[in-house]
Every structure is written in structure tokens, then in C-alpha cells.
Amino acid sequence: MALPLRRRLPVLPLLLLAAGGLRAAERSSSSAMEELATEKEAEESHRQDSVSLLTFILLLTLTILTIWLFKHRRVRFLHETGLAMIYGLIVGVILRYGTPSTSGRDKPISCSQEDRLFTTLLVNVSGKFFEYTLKGEISPGKIHNVEQNDMLRKVTFDPEVFFNILLPPIIFHAGYSLKKRHFFRNLGSILAYAFLGTAVSCFIIGNLMYGVVKLMKLVGQLSDKFYYTDCLLFGAIISATDPVTVLAIFNELHADVDLYALLFGESVLNDAVAIVLSSSIVAYQPTGENTHAFDAAAFFKSVGVFLGIFSGSFMMGAVTGVVTALVTKFTKLHCFPLLETALFFLMSWSTFLLAEACGFTGVVAVLFCGITQAHYTYNNLSVESRSRTKQLFEVLHFLAENFIFSYMGLALFTFQKHIFSPVFIIGAFIAIFLGRAAHIYPLSFLLNLGRRHKISWNFQHMMMFSGLRGAMAFALAIRDTATYSHQMMFSTTLLIVFFTVWIVGGGTTPMLSWLNIRVGVDPDQDPPPTNDSFQVLQGDGPDSERRNRTQQESAWLFRLWYSFDHNYLKPILTHSGPPLTTTLPSWCGLIARCLTSPQVYDNQEQLREEDSDFILNDGDLTVTYGDTTITANGSSGPHTATTSLDGKRTKSSSEEALERDLGAADHEVTSRGTRLVFPLEDNA
Amino acid sequence: MALPLRRRLPVLPLLLLAAGGLRAAERSSSSAMEELATEKEAEESHRQDSVSLLTFILLLTLTILTIWLFKHRRVRFLHETGLAMIYGLIVGVILRYGTPSTSGRDKPISCSQEDRLFTTLLVNVSGKFFEYTLKGEISPGKIHNVEQNDMLRKVTFDPEVFFNILLPPIIFHAGYSLKKRHFFRNLGSILAYAFLGTAVSCFIIGNLMYGVVKLMKLVGQLSDKFYYTDCLLFGAIISATDPVTVLAIFNELHADVDLYALLFGESVLNDAVAIVLSSSIVAYQPTGENTHAFDAAAFFKSVGVFLGIFSGSFMMGAVTGVVTALVTKFTKLHCFPLLETALFFLMSWSTFLLAEACGFTGVVAVLFCGITQAHYTYNNLSVESRSRTKQLFEVLHFLAENFIFSYMGLALFTFQKHIFSPVFIIGAFIAIFLGRAAHIYPLSFLLNLGRRHKISWNFQHMMMFSGLRGAMAFALAIRDTATYSHQMMFSTTLLIVFFTVWIVGGGTTPMLSWLNIRVGVDPDQDPPPTNDSFQVLQGDGPDSERRNRTQQESAWLFRLWYSFDHNYLKPILTHSGPPLTTTLPSWCGLIARCLTSPQVYDNQEQLREEDSDFILNDGDLTVTYGDTTITANGSSGPHTATTSLDGKRTKSSSEEALERDLGAADHEVTSRGTRLVFPLEDNA
């Protein structure tokens, strides 16, 4: 009731701000009495806004309480996100059928106008001027949709909210909480699954769906246009996997860490791939008359757009991460954790804005920013800021994720333009199954040719099974629901998300035991060699040597990067790593001394204890690179003492040094002796 | 560049969402080429949005780095908020004079229309329909202001952003971080300063300003209407003190804790009072022709509105706080800190929405919610959640506060409707000085009649000096800048904020030493009796007894509340306090056993150690109330061992018990022996 005169355009915090329904319902005819009436209506509208946001908070609160109950009772068949969807569904039903329809009150009028379009309209209503702002073009078919139930409209958010508010914290958190050790050890496979796999899946699903669409046209089930590009877009949208439920159970049961790394890494990166892929498909606009057929020039332009956006976004994220690392390194900001956390938050957020300002994809930039921050900046933060930043993003991630899932439940009933086509839906389910199969099995076969530690059959089946769809697919699908084809795609995506989260999520625990995937693993341990890989390693004598060589070659580039990172980037950007004075050539002495943090010499032990998860791979590496043998910090640590006791020191040079150091991180290795553990061993 | 088709109404995260300038600049004439052009423009607009938000992030980043430098060098003459304003000013100058004016492109057109007003307009431009939404009424004088520099418009936020996004975290944090012990010990005085003081200050400033306005009219400096209610509104706006800089220095130097509590408590509560006061003044609408003269009915209606809004908001905040406490008590949510923190966050936020939905003031509700959460819920949280919630709101508070102050600096140059009237400004400075004086000195005199521990002269001078204006005054002033008088008030408020933050903030350290206010105080200690109060206490023999009695009477109500809170509310709502089985009558046995947490019996020691700041006053109280003597938990703690050694046990009954217990919290007391320390001793 405060200052009611200003309540015309009520601005509610955070989310509602962007709600499409933020329009004050106002009418007037003349003089002061009407002004009061208008004020009353504006207040009423503001109240409705608050109520609709309260609905979501209530939903989330309920979800949290029920999750607690489930966790408390160790119920695992329903994950929090699945629960959020169920509550969303219930509230959606209530809103849809339980609230009176108030449509017609805000019926739009037409106002013909000269040839130009303006962002601001001034409308003269009986002597008073009212300002209107342009909202966007509206297709003639949608004009009737503007007449909607008031409450339903209030709970409908602008799709961009998902991209610009809810996804960034989720994605940043994914990057920031990446368990680097297992991620990097499987990086090659993860990249292959994420890039090749997503592209394969996108094209297979796209083509299968095009077949389905053709069939629908034959049967007469299609009432409007559905182009090949739409099918491809659907392929891109639905290729973004989000095994959040599976990973939660993995985490809880301490399931195999490598499988976890493969699944998590794939889902994180494939979100980025899917988002850029869908942009590229939208950017695919053949010139001339034949606007929806294949055109080589447009295709290559799309590929160019994909590469450009992806690498640009990647660079943006990496650059802000590096800048943050430098700032936190060269200031003593860590004495003031609040300032440090605030700076960290602002810099990470600015990545998003910077990428958007440059025309790249903010969400993707934020992912790589998160990875960079975890890799470099995290080492410079004070102990308090480390937990602060982690917790801050954890809370934001949790709220955003559950909000999206409860919104999904709600949208099934409150979204007013659903088009459910049984043929399309059944086709889509078959297509995503086939797409996933065509992505996992052949790729795993190819990867296994190069991997020393094979991806076993049960892992492949588990990955096949874990192809859930979630927040990213939803956000991509809801982004554009203007046309018939997009509406059908949106409705189908919703159903696929529901099905996979509930059925697949619920079946994870049985599936794990059925596939004999071991649980209760200490995440700092290596898995024992599975039967397959063990036999392969021991069985083929002459082959293994050749493969070893191939692998060394393919690993060469990565090893180069790895030692570069460890010898130069880490020491420059963080307080850890070997002193630059030892890694840089001697003529760089002065610069090296300036750039090397004094802490490098005395905080190595401390770092090792505090965040072993993050630096296990980096803190203790001795590399013979070029012609100088570099002995790094960690070698004198307690780990080396353990490993130097074993008698396996027969190999020579860099290979040997690498093994020793990485063995330091993986205690089991040396006792088994047959496997060489290299953090990036499988980059095929 | 992702999905450019959807970029028409770019939605940027958080703040920009509500920016007034979020209008895509679009024009079209016909066919596809124009669509592309439109898309380009929309993208351009989206880019500008990102850039403008980046500007603010850059500002905050710069501020953080400079603050660090200042803190590092122990520079105290400039506080972070002052710094944020300076950077804001610089960027404002650059934006104002450094960017090319692009006005005219979005020139509004008039479109006469029939008699009704709609929220949505559909405009037909050469066959295409465009949707416009109502933004609000615009006064004819403002029509030309719509033509603005594009960039300046982009950095101008909707005033409601301040109320609905930036203030709530600041205010909640204030409530949540209230140092309860010293706050409650001075509660009476704080309430008096906040309520009476703010009202007095508002009316004095209002009347003085009305004199100034009359003078301006005589001199011919006034070019438009300026009513008495406007003057009163100005009084309310400018009565919200915000001694953020002073308090920061107090915190850093560990200045006197009671003075800190007085200043902090006053500023927190007087924000709430000022906001409700200004709403009430706006609600003051005399009926009939004479709309801006005094009208008793309207006046009483305003007073009623004030009381209604204030008590309603208070209730809302308290109720959600209590609900959160109950939920966190009766679930084992503390096993999952993430869920707990998320729930805490959601419930606190829902207070705001609930209050707004019911027509109360969200910001005020959030304040009392914060206090309730700190008092009850905090005790139920897990150790991790305690630090998590504190840190979360600390970061949000820090960012929001510095954002507001840097926006203030920016607004001096980018706000396009400034009206600087030298007479009004000088008058305002004199008025706020006199208003503050008329508020502090007489009230302190009256309070000192009732206080045992007097507010000494140097404290009064310091309080007089600390009447800075900040975020709340700015937010209230910017809320409505539609009329001439409001614009003048806004410009004047800005200058007052600048002046007080820079000059007064910078002068705090010299002032502290000039006034001989002791620094380096252990916050858990009591201040030594100052000269004045000491003399008063010892000097007057017969009087003191009478006063003692008066005080006991006035304290009676509060003591009632205190024991009620301790014996019933705390045990019901939290895991601390005495078991209900001992405090409730025996016939409530079953209910008492259900409501009493099992932890009550064994977690007392733990609680004492962890958050002594929060429960020092509550954990160890023995009260003889009614006819049952209740011995509470803390009495057997280590503190009592210390105090029971002294020989001052001569008084009897409840007074004695109270002293012993509160003495347990205040070690110094018993050794001095002349002062009776009661947490609420001064509620005059």
C-alpha cells in the first residue's frame, strides 16, 4: 500500500520482473474517481503478481520439505526435481481449472498507424497521455491468444528468464564444481561424447523426426508447416542430456567415479554444444526462394557460426576467469573474504554479460568461466571465500534447478498453446532412444580402441540408460513457441522430460545393481580394472605396444598443454605450482621473480591439504619437458615417500616421471603395477 | 547471437530486467530485408543492455578493488559507499558528455483513440501486428523528456527496483545481523529515537521546508506548485538516517558498543518508520475541493494507515519468522544444510511477497522477519547453515548497498529532470540539521530521566553528528519524480546524501577522538560508567529509589514479554530454552513433552559456545515469575561459578535472580556493584 501512486507498473523482485504478465490492468474515463479506480486495479494487479510468485515459493518450500522426508527415509525412487515437477503439475491443474477466467478485460484494440514503427507510443485518452512500449511483433494467429486467463498469464514467464536468469547459475555451478581429477582423466572421451555424440544424436533425431513428419503429412495429422530445419532444431534441443537424478544417486551411493565423470562431463559440455548447435540451426537461412531446403553455403555458414560462437564463448569465459585469477593473486584481497566473494561473483557474472555484449552465448561462456575459476582462481581464494563461493553457487543452483522443474510441471497445464500429436510423440521417443544408442555404442567402441582403461559394456548400458532430458532441453524448447512446429516440439519435449526424469530417474538404483556397477567407491581411489579392460591389457602383447605409441602420440598435444599449464599458467595465475624462476628460461629472471607469488615457496603443504580434490593432479608433477628437467613442488610431499618405496622404477624419462607423480595421487596404482595411470590417458 | 529471432525483447538478468530502458528499437517497412534490419537493431539494443549492466559491474569491481586498497592501507576518511558514489559520478559524467546523443530515433508518436484505456495495444503497421504494453500515464510536461539519450536511458532503472530488489536484502541483513544483546539492552531508547524521533524530525523538517517554500514563492524562485504535503513527504524521506560509514568505522575501531547499538538500532528501525510514514503522507488525501490543506479526518486516516501498515508488516515478518522456526525445529532438515539454507532463503523472501500481497510494506516485514529469524530460527539451524545464511545475506547486502551508492553517483549526471534550487538546498541542509537536533537532544534528555545508564553528552553529540542519509532516503526520493516538487526533492536528497556520506563519513574518526569516545572495546564487555551517568547514579540518594520504582514499572511490560519469550516461545520455537515440561502448568504435560525438543536437555553447552552473541541474554536466565520459581538452563554453566563468588547477594527475589543471571553475561558488573544490568533496563 506504500505510495500507491507509483504502483502502476509494479516491479516484483527477480523473476517476476520478466514475467510476460507484468501489465497493470487499467482503464479510465475521466477525472479523479477513475484515477482511484485505476489505482485500485493497479494495486490488485500488483497483488496478483505477488501471489503468483508466492505460489512458486510455496512450491519450492513444499518440494524442499518433501525431499527432506525422502532423504531422511532414504527413498531413492523419486528425485527432488521429479518431485518439483509433480507439485508443479498439481498447482498447474488447480490454476487451470480452479481459478475463474478473467479474460476479455484486457482485450487489445487495434490502432492503425502510418508506415513507421516506434518503440514508444503515446496514446491520448480523453486528454490524458499514456505511454506504451513495444513488446514485439505478434503473428496474426496469436492475436486471440492474448485473451487469456489472468492468473495463467501471471504465472507464465518470459522464456528469456530461463536463459538469462536460471540457467547461468546452474551452468556456472556445474563448471565450478567439476571434480577435476576424474574429469581430466576422461577428458578425451568426454569431449568425444559431448561434441561428436551430440552432433550425431542431433542429426539422427532430426532425420528420424523428418521421417515422422513426412508420415504425419501422409496420414493427414499435420495441420501446418514443419520444415526440415525444425526437425534438426528439435534434434539439437532434445540432445541436451541432463542426468541430474542419476548423478544424485551416483553421488549418494558413491558409484563408480569414472562413470560419474563420463556422465557428468558429457552432460555439462553437451548442454553447451546443444545451445550453440540450436543457434547455428536457427542461423541456417538459405538465401533465395527455397528457404528451407539444403544449401551448402548456408550449411557452411552455420558450421562457421557454430565454431565461431563456441570458441568465442569459450574464450570469453576463459579470459574473465584468468583476469579474476590475476586480480585475486596480485591483490591481498583474501584478507577480506567478503570483498573477495563479491569480486568473484561480479567477475563471473560479467562473463555472461560480456559474452552477450559481444554476440556470443553467455551460458556457454559462464560454463568455461566456472571451469577456469575452479582451476585457477580457487587456489588464490581465502579459505572462507572458497566455502562461501561454493555455497553461494550451490544455493543458487539448487533454487534455480528446482524452480525450472516445478515450472515445467506447471507449464503442462498453464501453457495455453500445447499441441500434443501422438504420432510425433511416439516418434520422438523412438528417435531419442535410437539417437542415444547411435551416439553411445559406436563412439564407445571407437574410444575403446584408444583407451587403456576401457569403457566396459555395463558402463555403456548405464550411459545409454542415463540419457535423461532436463532443464536445458526445456529452456531451449520454450525459447521460441511462436509457430505450430515449435509448439508441437515444446509439448513433446515437456513429455520427454517428464518421462525420463520420473521413469529413468526412478529406475537408476535397480539399473545400477542389475548392471553390476559397483557402489560405495572412495572417490580418491581408482576403480579396479574391469574384466574387459583387464583382459585386453594383458591379452594382446604386440598390439598393446603399438597402441601405446598411438596413444602417446595422441596424448602429445595434451601433455604439452598440461605441462604448459602446470609450469607457466598455474604459477602466473595462482599461488601454487612451481616457482616461475625455475620454469622460465634464465633470461626471464626478473619477470619470473615478479610474477611468482612468494607464497609458492611456503604454502604448498597447506594447499595440498585443503583442496586436494582440486589440485591433486596439479600440485605434484615432475615433467621432463624439452631439455630441462623440472622438479616440482609436490615431489617432496608425503605422497612421494609412499610411492618411492615400490620397486617399479624401471622406465625412463618423462613417462616415468609422470607415472611416479600421478601414482602419488593414486595409491592403488603402483601396487597393481600393470596399469599406467595418466590423468588424460584416454584422450582418443 | 544465439537464437537471434527471439532477441526482440531481451531480458537481462536481475536488475536490468526492470530498467526503464528495456525497449528494443525497432522499425520496419516491409518484407524480409526489414526483418533482418529489425533483428540487427534488436541485437544492438540487447548489446547496449549488456554494456550498461557491465558498466555497473565494472563500477562495483573498481570499488571493491579500491576499498581493498584503502582497507589495506587503513585509510578511513573514505568509506566504500562514498567511493562507489565517486566512481558513479565519474562514469555518469562520461556517459552524459562522452556518448553521442541518439535521441529522435525512438521519437514517440501520438495516436488518438476512443474513450477506453487498455493494457495491450495492437498496432497494425503495413499488415504486421505489433504488441505494445501500457507503461503508465505520462504528464504532458514530460512528453519531451521521452526523447532522451539512448545510453542514459539504458542506465536508468525503474525506481521500483530499489524498493523491490535492492532494499530487501539490505534491510533483512540489518535485522538478521542485529547484535541482539546490546540492541535489547537499549531497546527502549532505540524505539523512542526511531518512532518519536523520526516523527519529530519529519514534522520539523516538513514545516521548516514549508517556510522555505513560502520564501521561495515570495522571491519568485518557485515555478510550479509545492504543497504542504510535499514538504511533509520530504521530511519523511529525509528522516531516514543511514549511518553506514559511521558504523563501519565503529566496527573497525571497536567503538563503544552501546553507542553502536543506539545508532544502528535507530537507523534500522527509522528506515521502517520513514517508509511507512511517507506512505501515510501520500495516503493523506483530504476529500473535497481543498485537497492540499489540513483535514482532521484525512489526518486521522493517515495515522490509522501508518499504524495499520506498520503493525501489519510487523506481524507478517514475525509470523513467517515463527513459521520458519517451527519448520526448522520439527524437521531434521539440519542434516541437509543446503535444503535448510534454501528453505530459509525462500521463507524470508516469501515474507516480502506475502506483505506486498496483503497490501503491507514488504521492506518493513522483511526487517522484522530478519529479527525473528535471528532470534528463533537461527538457533535451530545447523552450524553450516548458520554461516551459510549469514554469508549469503552479507554478500547480497554488500552488493546491493554498493550498487545503490554507485547508482546515486551516476544519477547526478544521468537523471535528466534535476531541479537544483539553491534556496531549497540550503534550507534543506539547515532543516535537517535542526530536525536532527530537535530529535536527539530533547529525546535524550527525556530518556535520561528514565535510563540508569545515561546517554552522555558526547554520545548525544556523536548521534547528532551521525545523522547521515543514504540508500533509504534515495530510494524513497526516486520513487516518485513525476512532479516539479518531487524532482526538486530528489535532487536535494541526492546532494544531502553526497554531502553527509563524504563529509560526515570522513569526519567520523576525528570526531570520535574529539568527543573522547573510547575505542577498542571488547563487544562482550560493558562500558565503564561514563562520568555523567556515574555521578548521577551515585549523587542522588532519595531520588534514585523513586526512579528505580518508576523504572521497574515501565519495565514491567517488557519483563513480562521477556520471561514469556524465554519460558514459552523459545522452547516452543527452538531447540534452546528451558524444557516446556518445567515451564508449562502440569496439566499441559503431554503437549509440553511433544513440543519440547529432546535436544533441549543436552545441547545447552554447545549452543552457548557457538553463538554466544545471539543467546547470551537468553540462555541463562532465572526468573521468579508469578508464583513459580523457574531455574533455567544456563544457571549451572561456568559463568555462574564466577559470579557466585562475589559477596553481593543481598537483594531478594526476582530482581536478585535477574541480576545474577545477567551479571553472568556481563562479568564487569558484579565487580562494580553499583549498577544493575538488565537487558532492557532503559525502555523508557
From TrEMBL, chains A, B:
Pfam families: Na_H_Exchanger (PF00999). GO terms for molecular function: potassium:proton antiporter activity; sodium:proton antiporter activity. Its main location: membrane. Keywords: Antiport, Cell membrane, Endosome, Ion transport, Membrane, Signal, Sodium, Sodium transport, Transmembrane, Transmembrane helix, Transport. The keyword Nucleotidyltransferase does not apply. It is a multi-pass membrane protein. Residues 63-514 form the Cation/H+ exchanger transmembrane domain. The chain crosses the membrane at residues 51-70, 77-98, 161-178, 190-212, 232-250, 304-328, 360-379, 391-413, 419-438, 459-478, 484-505. InterPro entries: Cation/H_exchanger_CPA1, Cation/H_exchanger_TM, NaH_exchanger, NHE-6/7/9. Residues 646-670 have a biased composition (Basic and acidic residues). Residues 629-645 have a biased composition (Polar residues). Belongs to the monovalent cation:proton antiporter 1 (CPA1) transporter (TC 2.A.36) family. This is Sodium/hydrogen exchanger. The gene is SLC9A7.
